[in-house]
Amino acid sequence: MPIKIPNNLPAVHTLEQENIFTMDEDRAYAQDIRPLRILLLNLMPTKIVTETQLLRLLGNSPLQVEFDFMYTATYEPKNTPQEHLVKFYETFDAVKNRKYDGMIITGAPVEQIPFEEVAYWEELCAIMDWSRKNVYSTLHICWGAQAALYHYYGIPKYPLKQKMFGVFAHTVNIKEKMLFRGFDDVFYVPHSRHTEVRREDIEKVPDLTILSESEAAGIYAVIDKKRRHFFITGHSEYDPLTLKAEYDRDISQGLSVQVPVNYYPEDDPTQTPVVRWRSAANLLFTNWLNYYVYQGTPFDLNKLNDEGELNGLFGDGI
């Protein structure tokens, strides 16, 4: 089944070349079913790249998904053409009176800045508070996860002595649960960050459960008690060459950066990177969309509330 995206979005051409089924607005409106409504708050500087990465993964679901794109009004993006923002993106003021089945808040290259000093911090807090009443399930990625854990629960981030950079092995702490259904015992996830959240801080919060972690990279996936908010510290959505692009950029700027771990054969950056995370990434996003959005959200989105009382299809599972 397709993902429904705006007519003429640049990602369409790339996705069609990869045989991922997309459907433009005109064709989707002719169908007599309700698509899932997903809001993407894109905080990444290269927004078109991030759109394509996430749409690629969510396009593998048998569900029809309708996307809206949002950026912060309090910070003007410098790496995305203004005409693209005007054509495809909206600000919070434009979407705040709508309700959504799901929402994704991306990472952002601001992790070394204190939360309160980020230019759009107050706006982001308002968006996160709004999402608790107007979005059924929210997926927070990398810095977006750190920001949400700090805003909701006061969990701090800590600077790392060395950038967490590469592809790391992970395990599932709670097996046979829906977010990681179908995962191998060991699976791989890319990470690219200078800060971390720590197990001991999360374990102090009764409303949070650690679902997955890595011996080398630390906490990976956390879920809240109501099973409506997910905090993912890695970048499962990354393309095969994303870490390479980051590494080449840093080297060209004269920065001291290590070769991404477990990424190049024999850690040789002249060789082609090996993709180890694609299947796990597809499962992660498909499982979230299916089990935590589609099977829980009400047909009438106006019935959404902030108490999580509409998730009866979940039973006692996580």
Give a verbal description of the structure.
The protein has 318 residues and is α/β, with parallel strands linked by helices. It has 2 domains: 3-162 and 169-240 and 281-314, Class I glutamine amidotransferase (GATase) domain (Rossmann fold, 3-Layer(aba) Sandwich), CATH 3.40.50; 241-274, no CATH class. It has helices spanning 11-17, 25-28, 47-58, 82-88, 92-95, 121-134, 143-153, 199-202, 242-252, 278-294; strands spanning 3-5, 22-24, 36-41, 65-70, 89-90, 100-105, 135-141, 158-172, 187-196, 208-214, 218-224, 229-232. Strands 1, 2, 3, 4, 5, 6, 7, 8, 9, 10, 11 and 12 form a 12-stranded mixed sheet that branches. Helix 1 packs across helix 3 (47-58). The protein starts with a strand and ends in a 24-residue tail after the last helix.
Give a brief outline of the structure.
This protein has ten helices and twelve strands. The protein is of the alpha/beta class.
List keywords for this structure.
29% helix; alpha/beta; 2 domains; 12 strands; twelve-stranded mixed beta sheet; 24% strand; 318 residues; Rossmann fold; globular
Strand and helix layout:
Layout: E1 3-5, H1 11-17, E2 22-24, H2 25-28, E3 36-41, H3 47-58, E4 65-70, H4 82-88, E5 89-90, H5 92-95, E6 100-105, H6 121-134, E7 135-141, H7 143-153, E8 158-172, E9 187-196, H8 199-202, E10 208-214, E11 218-224, E12 229-232, H9 242-252, H10 278-294
Parallel strand pairs: 1-2, 1-4, 3-4, 3-6, 4-5, 6-7, 7-12
Antiparallel strand pairs: 8-9, 8-10, 10-11, 11-12
